[in-house]
Amino acid sequence: MSSVPMTVAGKQKLDAELKELKTVARPRVIQAIATARAHGDLSENAEYDAAKEQQAFIEGRIKEVEDKLARAQVVDTSQIRTEKVVFGAQIELLDVDNDEKKNYRIVGVDEADVKEGLLSIESPVARQLLGKTAGDSVTVKIPKGTVEYEILSVKYS
């Protein structure tokens, strides 16, 4: 069973989702099933079928989140003391081709959101950055071709 790296914030987000699923979504779908059952013949009851599908989705997601939390390797990035890029690093990059600055944080797979500047530890960009320090340059292959970045800073908080 492999561990799932995540930040403290990522764990808190999954904990909140699990609580929401168990205390709000699950009871709501159980009530929807009971209401649909009260309408009679279940073989032709679209509300019942939809509620059962929703219940299956919710139960599956609960199991998935519980599994991830059980395997979580929570990393408190405020305790990291290195100048190298590792999990949890906040990195300021300069796109050498167009002089555009970008800020990213390397996080767990479930926390990733490129629009928010959160890069998955498994992404091609993050993999190229790992182990590098401020001042280093990296070339990353992306679907459009290649991009060259210069690392301007590496921070942890």
What does this 3D model show about the protein?
- The chain has 157 residues and is of the alpha/beta class.
- The chain folds into 2 domains: 4-75, Transcription elongation factor, GreA/GreB, N-terminal domain (Helix Hairpins), CATH 1.10.287.180; 77-155, Chitinase A, domain 3 (Roll), CATH 3.10.50.30.
- The protein is 39% helix and 27% strand.
- The protein contains 3 helices and 7 strands; from the N terminus they run E-H-H-E-E-E-E-H-E-E.
- The protein has a 5-stranded mixed sheet with strand order 5-4-3-7-6.
- Helix 1 packs antiparallel against helix 2.
- The chain starts with a strand and ends with a strand.
- The model has no long low-confidence stretch (mean pLDDT 91).
- The tally of helices reads 3
In CATH terms, what is the fold-level topology of the largest domain?
A: Chitinase A, domain 3
* Form type: elongated
Q: How many β-strand runs?
A: 7
Strand content: 25-35%
Determine the oligomeric state from the structure.
single chain
The CATH superfamily of the largest domain is: Transcription elongation factor, GreA/GreB, C-terminal domain
Low-confidence stretches: none
- In whole angstroms, the N-to-C terminal distance is 29 Å
Describe the strand arrangement of the main beta sheet, using strand numbers.
Answer: 5-4-3-7-6
User: H/E element string?
Assistant: EHHEEEEHEE
User: Which structural class should the secondary elements be placed in?
Assistant: alpha/beta
**Helix amount:** 25-40%
The CATH class of the largest domain is Alpha Beta
